[in-house]
Specification:
heterodimer, A: mainly alpha, 2 helices, B: alpha/beta, Amidase signature (AS) enzymes, eleven-stranded mixed beta sheet, 14 helices, globular, disordered C terminus
Protein backbone atom coordinates (compact mmCIF):
# COMPACT_ATOMS: atom_id res chain seq x y z
CA UNK A 1 0.00 0.00 0.00
CA UNK A 2 1.30 3.44 -0.89
CA UNK A 3 1.33 6.21 1.66
CA UNK A 4 -1.15 8.43 -0.16
CA UNK A 5 -3.71 5.61 -0.34
CA UNK A 6 -4.33 5.65 3.39
CA UNK A 7 -6.80 8.21 4.66
CA UNK A 8 -4.45 9.32 7.42
CA UNK A 9 -1.68 10.14 4.99
CA UNK A 10 -3.91 11.63 2.31
CA UNK A 11 -3.58 15.21 3.49
CA UNK A 12 0.16 14.77 3.71
CA UNK A 13 0.24 13.31 0.21
CA UNK A 14 -1.75 16.26 -1.14
CA UNK A 15 0.50 18.77 0.64
CA UNK A 16 3.64 17.03 -0.58
CA UNK A 17 2.47 17.04 -4.19
CA UNK A 18 1.36 20.65 -3.86
CA UNK A 19 4.80 21.73 -2.64
CA UNK A 20 6.46 19.77 -5.43
CA UNK A 21 4.14 21.23 -8.05
CA UNK A 22 4.68 24.78 -6.82
CA UNK A 23 8.43 24.29 -6.71
CA UNK A 24 8.43 22.96 -10.26
CA UNK A 25 6.21 25.77 -11.49
CA UNK A 26 8.55 28.20 -9.73
CA UNK A 27 6.03 30.88 -8.83
CA UNK A 28 3.95 32.18 -5.99
CA UNK A 29 0.20 31.67 -6.14
CA UNK A 30 -2.48 33.62 -4.37
CA UNK A 31 -4.93 31.82 -2.09
CA UNK A 32 -7.55 31.26 -4.78
CA UNK A 33 -4.99 29.85 -7.16
CA UNK A 34 -3.55 27.57 -4.46
CA UNK A 35 -7.06 26.32 -3.79
CA UNK A 36 -7.58 25.48 -7.47
CA UNK A 37 -4.26 23.64 -7.72
CA UNK A 38 -4.82 21.81 -4.45
CA UNK A 39 -8.27 20.67 -5.54
CA UNK A 40 -6.86 19.38 -8.81
CA UNK A 41 -4.16 17.46 -6.93
CA UNK A 42 -6.84 15.88 -4.77
CA UNK A 43 -8.59 14.79 -7.95
CA UNK A 44 -5.33 13.43 -9.39
CA UNK A 45 -4.88 11.35 -6.25
CA UNK A 46 -8.42 10.01 -6.54
CA UNK A 47 -7.71 9.02 -10.13
CA UNK A 48 -4.41 7.38 -9.13
CA UNK A 49 -6.20 5.48 -6.38
CA UNK A 50 -8.71 4.07 -8.89
CA UNK A 51 -5.96 3.08 -11.30
CA UNK A 52 -3.92 1.40 -8.53
CA UNK A 53 -6.90 -0.76 -7.67
CA UNK A 54 -6.52 -2.67 -10.96
CA UNK A 55 -4.52 -5.87 -10.39
CA UNK A 56 -1.44 -6.04 -12.59
CA UNK A 57 1.08 -8.83 -13.09
CA UNK A 58 4.77 -8.04 -12.79
CA UNK A 59 5.21 -8.29 -16.56
CA UNK A 60 2.13 -6.29 -17.60
CA UNK A 61 3.72 -3.72 -19.89
CA UNK A 62 2.59 -0.13 -20.40
CA UNK A 63 0.75 0.65 -23.64
CA UNK A 64 3.28 3.02 -25.06
CA UNK A 65 5.12 2.31 -28.21
CA UNK A 66 8.87 2.29 -28.51
CA UNK A 67 10.47 1.23 -31.75
CA UNK A 68 14.18 1.60 -32.45
CA UNK A 69 13.23 2.16 -36.09
CA UNK A 70 11.63 5.46 -35.15
CA UNK A 71 15.15 6.87 -34.87
CA UNK A 72 16.08 5.97 -38.43
CA UNK A 73 16.69 8.77 -40.93
CA UNK A 74 13.45 10.20 -42.24
CA UNK A 75 11.28 8.80 -39.49
CA UNK A 76 9.93 11.64 -37.41
CA UNK A 77 12.97 13.74 -38.30
CA UNK A 78 10.94 16.94 -38.26
CA UNK A 79 9.26 17.74 -34.97
CA UNK A 80 5.50 18.09 -35.24
CA UNK A 81 6.02 21.75 -34.42
CA UNK B 1 -24.38 31.09 -59.48
CA UNK B 2 -27.93 29.81 -59.94
CA UNK B 3 -28.57 28.14 -56.58
CA UNK B 4 -29.56 30.42 -53.70
CA UNK B 5 -26.97 31.37 -51.08
CA UNK B 6 -29.10 29.77 -48.35
CA UNK B 7 -29.32 26.48 -50.22
CA UNK B 8 -25.60 26.48 -50.93
CA UNK B 9 -24.71 27.34 -47.33
CA UNK B 10 -26.34 24.21 -45.96
CA UNK B 11 -25.59 21.88 -48.85
CA UNK B 12 -23.44 18.82 -48.29
CA UNK B 13 -20.02 18.27 -49.83
CA UNK B 14 -21.53 15.70 -52.17
CA UNK B 15 -24.27 18.13 -53.29
CA UNK B 16 -21.79 20.97 -53.83
CA UNK B 17 -19.56 18.64 -55.82
CA UNK B 18 -22.41 17.89 -58.19
CA UNK B 19 -23.14 21.61 -58.65
CA UNK B 20 -19.46 22.33 -59.32
CA UNK B 21 -19.24 19.63 -61.96
CA UNK B 22 -22.45 20.68 -63.67
CA UNK B 23 -21.19 24.24 -63.86
CA UNK B 24 -24.07 25.60 -61.77
CA UNK B 25 -21.63 27.11 -59.32
CA UNK B 26 -17.92 27.89 -59.32
CA UNK B 27 -15.37 27.15 -56.64
CA UNK B 28 -14.61 30.87 -56.44
CA UNK B 29 -18.29 31.62 -55.77
CA UNK B 30 -18.39 28.98 -53.03
CA UNK B 31 -15.21 30.36 -51.49
CA UNK B 32 -16.58 33.91 -51.54
CA UNK B 33 -19.82 32.74 -49.93
CA UNK B 34 -17.97 30.84 -47.21
CA UNK B 35 -15.67 33.81 -46.53
CA UNK B 36 -18.65 36.14 -46.26
CA UNK B 37 -20.61 33.87 -43.94
CA UNK B 38 -17.57 33.18 -41.75
CA UNK B 39 -16.97 36.92 -41.51
CA UNK B 40 -20.55 37.67 -40.44
CA UNK B 41 -22.38 34.69 -38.98
CA UNK B 42 -19.16 32.92 -37.97
CA UNK B 43 -17.66 35.90 -36.19
CA UNK B 44 -20.99 36.48 -34.47
CA UNK B 45 -20.67 33.02 -32.99
CA UNK B 46 -16.99 33.58 -32.03
CA UNK B 47 -16.22 30.71 -34.39
CA UNK B 48 -13.47 32.37 -36.41
CA UNK B 49 -9.89 33.28 -35.57
CA UNK B 50 -8.45 34.14 -38.99
CA UNK B 51 -9.93 34.24 -42.46
CA UNK B 52 -7.63 33.07 -45.25
CA UNK B 53 -9.00 34.89 -48.32
CA UNK B 54 -5.76 34.97 -50.31
CA UNK B 55 -5.27 31.23 -50.03
CA UNK B 56 -8.97 30.52 -50.51
CA UNK B 57 -9.40 32.55 -53.67
CA UNK B 58 -6.16 31.25 -55.19
CA UNK B 59 -7.06 27.62 -54.42
CA UNK B 60 -10.61 28.15 -55.69
CA UNK B 61 -9.45 29.78 -58.93
CA UNK B 62 -7.09 26.88 -59.50
CA UNK B 63 -9.90 24.40 -58.80
CA UNK B 64 -12.13 26.10 -61.37
CA UNK B 65 -9.35 26.20 -63.96
CA UNK B 66 -8.57 22.53 -63.41
CA UNK B 67 -12.20 21.49 -63.78
CA UNK B 68 -12.42 23.47 -67.00
CA UNK B 69 -9.31 21.62 -68.20
CA UNK B 70 -10.82 18.26 -67.28
CA UNK B 71 -8.68 17.76 -64.17
CA UNK B 72 -10.76 16.48 -61.25
CA UNK B 73 -9.03 15.82 -57.94
CA UNK B 74 -12.05 14.04 -56.47
CA UNK B 75 -14.99 14.83 -54.22
CA UNK B 76 -13.25 17.65 -52.30
CA UNK B 77 -12.26 19.49 -55.47
CA UNK B 78 -13.33 23.14 -55.03
CA UNK B 79 -15.02 22.53 -51.66
CA UNK B 80 -14.49 25.25 -49.00
CA UNK B 81 -13.51 24.17 -45.49
CA UNK B 82 -12.23 25.57 -42.21
CA UNK B 83 -9.42 24.24 -40.04
CA UNK B 84 -9.29 24.33 -36.26
CA UNK B 85 -6.66 26.87 -35.25
CA UNK B 86 -4.33 24.25 -33.81
CA UNK B 87 -3.43 23.20 -37.36
CA UNK B 88 -0.57 25.14 -38.94
CA UNK B 89 -1.31 26.96 -42.19
CA UNK B 90 1.80 28.49 -43.69
CA UNK B 91 1.97 32.23 -43.32
CA UNK B 92 -1.14 32.61 -41.16
CA UNK B 93 -1.25 32.88 -37.37
CA UNK B 94 -1.85 29.58 -35.59
CA UNK B 95 -3.00 30.66 -32.16
CA UNK B 96 -4.01 27.36 -30.54
CA UNK B 97 -6.95 29.47 -29.29
CA UNK B 98 -4.71 31.16 -26.73
CA UNK B 99 -3.76 34.84 -26.47
CA UNK B 100 -0.10 34.13 -25.59
CA UNK B 101 0.26 32.33 -28.94
CA UNK B 102 -1.94 34.56 -31.08
CA UNK B 103 0.94 35.85 -33.21
CA UNK B 104 2.58 32.45 -33.68
CA UNK B 105 3.24 31.73 -37.37
CA UNK B 106 4.63 28.54 -38.87
CA UNK B 107 6.39 28.27 -42.21
CA UNK B 108 4.87 24.96 -43.19
CA UNK B 109 1.34 23.61 -43.47
CA UNK B 110 0.16 20.85 -41.18
CA UNK B 111 0.00 17.47 -42.88
CA UNK B 112 -3.80 17.59 -42.88
CA UNK B 113 -3.83 21.04 -44.51
CA UNK B 114 -1.40 19.75 -47.16
CA UNK B 115 -3.58 16.72 -47.85
CA UNK B 116 -6.76 18.77 -48.09
CA UNK B 117 -5.02 21.05 -50.61
CA UNK B 118 -3.84 18.06 -52.62
CA UNK B 119 -7.46 16.86 -52.72
CA UNK B 120 -8.50 20.22 -54.17
CA UNK B 121 -10.22 21.58 -51.02
CA UNK B 122 -10.22 25.34 -50.39
CA UNK B 123 -9.05 26.65 -47.01
CA UNK B 124 -11.27 29.60 -46.06
CA UNK B 125 -10.40 30.15 -42.42
CA UNK B 126 -8.81 29.10 -39.15
CA UNK B 127 -11.57 28.26 -36.71
CA UNK B 128 -11.83 29.11 -33.03
CA UNK B 129 -11.19 26.63 -30.26
CA UNK B 130 -10.96 26.44 -26.51
CA UNK B 131 -7.51 27.70 -25.60
CA UNK B 132 -4.84 25.01 -25.76
CA UNK B 133 -7.49 22.45 -26.69
CA UNK B 134 -9.01 22.56 -23.23
CA UNK B 135 -6.12 20.76 -21.62
CA UNK B 136 -5.60 23.35 -18.90
CA UNK B 137 -8.76 22.50 -16.96
CA UNK B 138 -11.26 25.16 -18.09
CA UNK B 139 -14.48 25.13 -16.12
CA UNK B 140 -16.75 27.37 -18.25
CA UNK B 141 -17.13 28.35 -21.93
CA UNK B 142 -15.29 31.69 -21.76
CA UNK B 143 -11.92 30.08 -22.35
CA UNK B 144 -10.66 31.41 -25.68
CA UNK B 145 -9.26 34.79 -26.66
CA UNK B 146 -11.90 34.94 -29.40
CA UNK B 147 -14.65 34.76 -26.77
CA UNK B 148 -16.87 31.89 -25.67
CA UNK B 149 -17.85 29.62 -28.54
CA UNK B 150 -21.52 30.30 -29.27
CA UNK B 151 -23.88 27.61 -30.49
CA UNK B 152 -25.17 27.59 -34.07
CA UNK B 153 -28.72 27.03 -32.79
CA UNK B 154 -28.77 29.55 -29.96
CA UNK B 155 -26.13 32.22 -29.33
CA UNK B 156 -26.81 31.98 -25.61
CA UNK B 157 -25.75 28.34 -25.57
CA UNK B 158 -22.26 26.88 -25.73
CA UNK B 159 -20.90 25.37 -28.94
CA UNK B 160 -19.00 22.71 -26.99
CA UNK B 161 -15.28 22.25 -26.98
CA UNK B 162 -12.61 22.24 -27.79
CA UNK B 163 -13.41 22.30 -31.54
CA UNK B 164 -16.02 25.02 -30.87
CA UNK B 165 -15.55 26.95 -34.09
CA UNK B 166 -15.48 23.81 -36.22
CA UNK B 167 -18.82 22.68 -34.84
CA UNK B 168 -20.51 26.08 -34.94
CA UNK B 169 -19.20 27.03 -38.40
CA UNK B 170 -20.59 23.86 -39.98
CA UNK B 171 -23.78 24.01 -37.92
CA UNK B 172 -24.45 27.62 -38.98
CA UNK B 173 -23.79 26.94 -42.65
CA UNK B 174 -20.56 28.93 -42.93
CA UNK B 175 -18.61 26.00 -44.37
CA UNK B 176 -19.79 22.52 -45.36
CA UNK B 177 -16.77 20.88 -43.77
CA UNK B 178 -14.33 21.61 -40.97
CA UNK B 179 -11.34 19.81 -39.54
CA UNK B 180 -11.26 19.49 -35.77
CA UNK B 181 -9.31 17.46 -33.27
CA UNK B 182 -10.12 15.35 -30.25
CA UNK B 183 -8.11 14.27 -27.28
CA UNK B 184 -11.21 13.57 -25.18
CA UNK B 185 -14.58 14.80 -26.48
CA UNK B 186 -13.39 17.71 -28.63
CA UNK B 187 -15.01 16.54 -31.88
CA UNK B 188 -17.99 14.58 -30.62
CA UNK B 189 -19.27 17.21 -28.16
CA UNK B 190 -19.26 20.20 -30.58
CA UNK B 191 -20.83 17.94 -33.21
CA UNK B 192 -23.60 16.92 -30.78
CA UNK B 193 -24.23 20.45 -29.51
CA UNK B 194 -24.35 22.06 -32.97
CA UNK B 195 -26.40 19.37 -34.71
CA UNK B 196 -23.70 18.27 -37.14
CA UNK B 197 -21.97 15.00 -37.93
CA UNK B 198 -18.51 14.56 -36.43
CA UNK B 199 -16.01 11.76 -36.82
CA UNK B 200 -13.10 10.84 -34.55
CA UNK B 201 -10.80 8.44 -36.42
CA UNK B 202 -8.87 5.55 -34.93
CA UNK B 203 -5.77 6.93 -33.19
CA UNK B 204 -2.92 7.09 -35.69
CA UNK B 205 -5.06 7.00 -38.83
CA UNK B 206 -4.52 10.72 -39.53
CA UNK B 207 -1.14 12.47 -39.26
CA UNK B 208 -0.83 15.14 -36.58
CA UNK B 209 2.29 16.76 -37.99
CA UNK B 210 1.84 20.49 -37.67
CA UNK B 211 -0.87 20.17 -35.02
CA UNK B 212 -0.58 21.42 -31.46
CA UNK B 213 0.32 18.51 -29.22
CA UNK B 214 -1.77 18.11 -26.07
CA UNK B 215 -1.44 14.38 -25.47
CA UNK B 216 0.86 12.48 -27.81
CA UNK B 217 -0.92 9.19 -27.21
CA UNK B 218 -4.49 10.52 -27.30
CA UNK B 219 -4.65 13.35 -29.90
CA UNK B 220 -6.66 12.61 -33.08
CA UNK B 221 -7.68 14.79 -36.02
CA UNK B 222 -11.01 14.36 -37.78
CA UNK B 223 -13.80 16.01 -39.79
CA UNK B 224 -17.11 17.68 -38.89
CA UNK B 225 -19.68 18.01 -41.67
CA UNK B 226 -23.40 17.68 -42.40
CA UNK B 227 -23.32 13.96 -43.20
CA UNK B 228 -21.45 10.75 -42.51
CA UNK B 229 -20.74 10.44 -46.22
CA UNK B 230 -19.05 13.86 -46.15
CA UNK B 231 -16.94 12.75 -43.16
CA UNK B 232 -16.01 9.65 -45.12
CA UNK B 233 -14.96 11.79 -48.08
CA UNK B 234 -12.78 13.96 -45.84
CA UNK B 235 -11.26 10.98 -44.06
CA UNK B 236 -10.28 9.38 -47.36
CA UNK B 237 -8.34 12.56 -48.16
CA UNK B 238 -6.55 13.04 -44.84
CA UNK B 239 -5.92 9.47 -43.64
CA UNK B 240 -2.68 7.67 -44.25
CA UNK B 241 0.82 7.12 -42.95
CA UNK B 242 3.29 9.96 -42.49
CA UNK B 243 6.99 9.33 -41.88
CA UNK B 244 7.12 12.57 -39.94
CA UNK B 245 4.48 11.45 -37.45
CA UNK B 246 5.65 8.15 -36.03
CA UNK B 247 2.26 7.56 -34.41
CA UNK B 248 0.60 7.09 -37.80
CA UNK B 249 -0.39 3.54 -38.64
CA UNK B 250 0.99 1.83 -41.72
CA UNK B 251 -2.46 1.10 -43.07
CA UNK B 252 -3.39 0.80 -46.76
CA UNK B 253 -5.35 3.74 -48.25
CA UNK B 254 -8.77 4.22 -46.61
CA UNK B 255 -11.51 2.32 -48.42
CA UNK B 256 -15.16 3.21 -47.76
CA UNK B 257 -17.50 0.44 -46.64
CA UNK B 258 -20.49 0.41 -49.02
CA UNK B 259 -22.82 -1.65 -46.82
CA UNK B 260 -26.15 -0.06 -45.91
CA UNK B 261 -27.64 -3.02 -43.99
CA UNK B 262 -26.66 -6.19 -42.18
CA UNK B 263 -24.79 -4.39 -39.38
CA UNK B 264 -24.26 -5.76 -35.90
CA UNK B 265 -24.66 -3.20 -33.13
CA UNK B 266 -24.13 -3.29 -29.39
CA UNK B 267 -25.71 -0.99 -26.83
CA UNK B 268 -25.13 -0.46 -23.13
CA UNK B 269 -28.14 0.38 -20.99
CA UNK B 270 -25.98 1.62 -18.12
CA UNK B 271 -24.41 4.32 -20.26
CA UNK B 272 -27.79 5.91 -20.83
CA UNK B 273 -28.70 6.35 -17.19
CA UNK B 274 -29.10 10.00 -16.30
CA UNK B 275 -29.77 11.22 -19.82
CA UNK B 276 -32.16 14.10 -20.31
CA UNK B 277 -35.63 12.81 -21.23
CA UNK B 278 -35.58 14.30 -24.72
CA UNK B 279 -32.15 12.84 -25.37
CA UNK B 280 -33.27 9.43 -24.13
CA UNK B 281 -36.43 9.56 -26.26
CA UNK B 282 -34.49 10.43 -29.40
CA UNK B 283 -31.97 7.71 -28.64
CA UNK B 284 -34.80 5.19 -28.42
CA UNK B 285 -36.13 6.43 -31.78
CA UNK B 286 -32.64 6.11 -33.24
CA UNK B 287 -32.43 2.52 -32.00
CA UNK B 288 -35.55 1.73 -34.03
CA UNK B 289 -33.78 2.97 -37.14
CA UNK B 290 -30.63 1.01 -36.33
CA UNK B 291 -32.78 -2.12 -35.95
CA UNK B 292 -33.87 -1.62 -39.59
CA UNK B 293 -30.28 -1.88 -40.73
CA UNK B 294 -28.92 -4.45 -38.32
CA UNK B 295 -29.19 -6.34 -35.06
CA UNK B 296 -28.66 -4.86 -31.58
CA UNK B 297 -27.30 -6.80 -28.62
CA UNK B 298 -26.90 -5.47 -25.11
CA UNK B 299 -23.41 -5.50 -23.62
CA UNK B 300 -21.81 -4.49 -20.33
CA UNK B 301 -18.85 -2.14 -20.16
CA UNK B 302 -15.80 -3.81 -18.57
CA UNK B 303 -15.23 -2.78 -14.95
CA UNK B 304 -12.07 -0.75 -15.41
CA UNK B 305 -11.18 2.85 -14.44
CA UNK B 306 -11.15 4.18 -18.00
CA UNK B 307 -11.71 7.83 -17.08
CA UNK B 308 -9.14 7.78 -14.30
CA UNK B 309 -6.45 6.28 -16.52
CA UNK B 310 -7.31 8.69 -19.34
CA UNK B 311 -7.13 11.65 -16.95
CA UNK B 312 -3.67 10.69 -15.71
CA UNK B 313 -2.30 9.99 -19.20
CA UNK B 314 -3.71 13.21 -20.64
CA UNK B 315 -2.61 15.39 -17.71
CA UNK B 316 0.92 14.02 -17.53
CA UNK B 317 1.50 14.26 -21.27
CA UNK B 318 0.00 17.76 -21.49
CA UNK B 319 2.17 18.96 -18.60
CA UNK B 320 5.22 17.57 -20.39
CA UNK B 321 4.19 19.08 -23.74
CA UNK B 322 3.71 22.51 -22.14
CA UNK B 323 6.35 22.25 -19.39
CA UNK B 324 8.07 25.50 -20.42
CA UNK B 325 4.74 27.36 -20.36
CA UNK B 326 2.92 25.96 -17.34
CA UNK B 327 2.93 28.29 -14.38
CA UNK B 328 4.81 31.08 -16.15
CA UNK B 329 3.78 34.73 -16.36
CA UNK B 330 2.93 34.03 -20.00
CA UNK B 331 0.21 31.69 -18.80
CA UNK B 332 -1.40 34.66 -17.08
CA UNK B 333 -2.38 35.77 -20.58
CA UNK B 334 -4.84 32.90 -20.90
CA UNK B 335 -8.49 33.92 -20.95
CA UNK B 336 -9.95 31.57 -18.35
CA UNK B 337 -8.69 32.44 -14.87
CA UNK B 338 -8.60 28.76 -13.93
CA UNK B 339 -6.41 27.97 -16.94
CA UNK B 340 -3.70 30.35 -15.75
CA UNK B 341 -2.72 27.80 -13.12
CA UNK B 342 -3.60 24.90 -15.41
CA UNK B 343 -1.46 21.77 -15.30
CA UNK B 344 0.62 22.99 -12.34
CA UNK B 345 -0.90 20.07 -10.46
CA UNK B 346 0.19 17.68 -13.20
CA UNK B 347 3.84 18.68 -12.78
CA UNK B 348 3.75 16.55 -9.62
CA UNK B 349 2.30 13.37 -11.13
CA UNK B 350 4.86 10.65 -10.38
CA UNK B 351 6.24 8.75 -13.35
CA UNK B 352 5.03 5.57 -11.67
CA UNK B 353 1.43 6.84 -11.72
CA UNK B 354 1.73 7.66 -15.42
CA UNK B 355 3.23 4.27 -16.22
CA UNK B 356 0.65 2.46 -14.14
CA UNK B 357 -2.07 4.27 -16.08
CA UNK B 358 -0.42 3.09 -19.30
CA UNK B 359 -0.29 -0.48 -17.97
CA UNK B 360 -3.99 -0.29 -17.12
CA UNK B 361 -4.55 1.21 -20.57
CA UNK B 362 -3.32 -2.00 -22.19
CA UNK B 363 -5.82 -3.97 -20.10
CA UNK B 364 -8.50 -1.50 -21.16
CA UNK B 365 -7.61 -1.85 -24.84
CA UNK B 366 -7.81 -5.63 -24.63
CA UNK B 367 -11.10 -5.52 -22.72
CA UNK B 368 -12.74 -3.06 -25.12
CA UNK B 369 -11.59 -5.03 -28.14
CA UNK B 370 -13.02 -8.21 -26.66
CA UNK B 371 -16.27 -6.37 -25.91
CA UNK B 372 -16.62 -5.01 -29.43
CA UNK B 373 -15.49 -8.14 -31.25
CA UNK B 374 -18.14 -9.12 -33.78
CA UNK B 375 -19.86 -5.72 -33.64
CA UNK B 376 -19.66 -2.91 -36.16
CA UNK B 377 -20.40 -0.26 -33.55
CA UNK B 378 -21.49 0.38 -30.01
CA UNK B 379 -24.52 2.71 -29.80
CA UNK B 380 -25.02 5.34 -27.10
CA UNK B 381 -26.41 8.85 -26.82
CA UNK B 382 -23.95 11.26 -28.45
CA UNK B 383 -24.09 13.35 -25.30
CA UNK B 384 -26.39 13.03 -22.33
CA UNK B 385 -27.67 16.62 -22.42
CA UNK B 386 -28.26 19.37 -24.94
CA UNK B 387 -25.90 22.36 -25.07
CA UNK B 388 -25.42 24.17 -21.77
CA UNK B 389 -25.72 27.94 -21.25
CA UNK B 390 -22.98 30.23 -22.52
CA UNK B 391 -22.43 31.62 -19.01
CA UNK B 392 -22.86 28.36 -17.14
CA UNK B 393 -20.02 26.82 -15.15
CA UNK B 394 -19.53 23.11 -15.80
CA UNK B 395 -19.26 22.09 -12.14
CA UNK B 396 -19.63 18.66 -10.67
CA UNK B 397 -22.63 17.82 -12.81
CA UNK B 398 -20.52 18.07 -15.95
CA UNK B 399 -17.90 15.75 -14.48
CA UNK B 400 -20.65 13.34 -13.58
CA UNK B 401 -21.96 13.41 -17.14
CA UNK B 402 -18.49 12.65 -18.44
CA UNK B 403 -18.22 9.66 -16.13
CA UNK B 404 -21.45 8.21 -17.52
CA UNK B 405 -20.38 8.28 -21.16
CA UNK B 406 -17.94 6.03 -22.96
CA UNK B 407 -15.77 8.95 -24.08
CA UNK B 408 -13.02 8.10 -21.60
CA UNK B 409 -12.87 4.47 -22.66
CA UNK B 410 -13.00 5.28 -26.37
CA UNK B 411 -10.28 7.93 -26.20
CA UNK B 412 -8.06 5.96 -23.84
CA UNK B 413 -8.22 3.04 -26.27
CA UNK B 414 -7.94 5.07 -29.49
CA UNK B 415 -11.30 3.89 -30.88
CA UNK B 416 -13.14 5.58 -33.77
CA UNK B 417 -16.36 7.42 -32.98
CA UNK B 418 -19.15 9.03 -34.98
CA UNK B 419 -21.73 11.55 -33.74
CA UNK B 420 -24.99 11.92 -35.68
CA UNK B 421 -27.82 14.43 -35.19
CA UNK B 422 -30.85 12.71 -33.63
CA UNK B 423 -33.52 15.41 -33.42
CA UNK B 424 -34.40 18.45 -31.33
CA UNK B 425 -34.41 18.14 -27.55
CA UNK B 426 -34.98 20.63 -24.74
CA UNK B 427 -35.49 24.19 -26.05
CA UNK B 428 -35.24 22.92 -29.62
CA UNK B 429 -31.54 22.22 -29.24
CA UNK B 430 -29.94 19.28 -31.07
CA UNK B 431 -29.56 15.84 -29.53
CA UNK B 432 -27.22 13.23 -30.93
CA UNK B 433 -26.51 9.54 -31.16
CA UNK B 434 -22.96 8.20 -30.95
CA UNK B 435 -21.32 5.16 -32.54
CA UNK B 436 -18.04 3.72 -31.27
CA UNK B 437 -16.14 1.11 -33.24
CA UNK B 438 -13.21 -1.23 -32.77
CA UNK B 439 -9.75 -0.10 -33.78
CA UNK B 440 -9.64 0.16 -37.60
CA UNK B 441 -13.44 -0.09 -37.88
CA UNK B 442 -13.63 3.48 -39.19
CA UNK B 443 -15.18 2.50 -42.50
CA UNK B 444 -17.84 0.29 -40.87
CA UNK B 445 -18.81 3.02 -38.39
CA UNK B 446 -19.14 5.58 -41.17
CA UNK B 447 -21.16 3.16 -43.31
CA UNK B 448 -23.57 2.58 -40.42
CA UNK B 449 -23.88 6.36 -40.00
CA UNK B 450 -24.58 6.81 -43.71
CA UNK B 451 -27.24 4.10 -43.59
CA UNK B 452 -28.85 5.80 -40.56
CA UNK B 453 -28.90 9.14 -42.37
CA UNK B 454 -30.48 7.56 -45.47
CA UNK B 455 -33.45 6.74 -43.21
CA UNK B 456 -33.60 9.95 -41.16
CA UNK B 457 -33.64 13.68 -41.83
CA UNK B 458 -32.22 15.13 -38.60
CA UNK B 459 -28.99 15.99 -40.41
CA UNK B 460 -31.07 18.02 -42.89
CA UNK B 461 -32.51 20.33 -40.23
CA UNK B 462 -30.69 23.60 -39.82
CA UNK B 463 -30.76 26.49 -37.38
CA UNK B 464 -32.41 29.81 -38.24
CA UNK B 465 -29.16 31.67 -38.90
CA UNK B 466 -29.52 34.52 -41.39
CA UNK B 467 -26.72 36.09 -43.34
CA UNK B 468 -26.37 39.41 -41.57
CA UNK B 469 -28.85 39.24 -38.77
CA UNK B 470 -30.12 37.09 -36.01
CA UNK B 471 -33.52 36.05 -37.25
CA UNK B 472 -36.56 35.71 -35.06
CA UNK B 473 -37.80 33.10 -37.51
CA UNK B 474 -37.50 29.75 -35.77
CA UNK B 475 -38.68 27.70 -38.73
CA UNK B 476 -36.19 25.26 -40.14
CA UNK B 477 -35.13 25.37 -43.71
CA UNK B 478 -34.42 22.51 -46.06
CA UNK B 479 -31.79 23.01 -48.76
CA UNK B 480 -33.31 23.13 -52.22
Amino acid sequence: MLADETSGDREMAVDTRLQLALARAGRQLDDDQRRIVRSRIERQLEMAHLVRAVPLAHDDEPAHEFSPSHGLAGAGETPRL
Amino acid sequence: MTASADALSFASVAELGALLRSGDVSAVALAELALARLNTVGRGLNAVVTLTPDTALAQAARADAELRAGIDRGPLHGIPYGAKDLLAARGYPTSWGAAPFRNQVFDRDAAVVERMAAAGAVLTGKLAMVELAGGFGYEQPDAAFTGPGRNAWDRERWAGGSSSGSGAAVGAGCVPLAIGSETWGSIVVPAAFNGVTGFRPTYGLVSRRGAMALSWTMDKIGPLAHTAVDCQIALAAIAGPDREDVSTLGRPPFQPDTRRSGFRFARMASVESGTEPHVAAHFDEALQVFREIGSIDEVTLPDLPFDAAATIVLSAEAAAAFEEFVGTEEADGLTAVENRVGLIDALAIPATDYLRALRVRRKAMQAMDALLQGFDALLAPGYLTVASGIGERFGEEQNDVESRTIGGAANLCGLPGLTLPAGPGRDGLPTAVGLTGRVDADAAVLAAGAAFQERTSWHRQFPPVKFHEESADTSRREPK
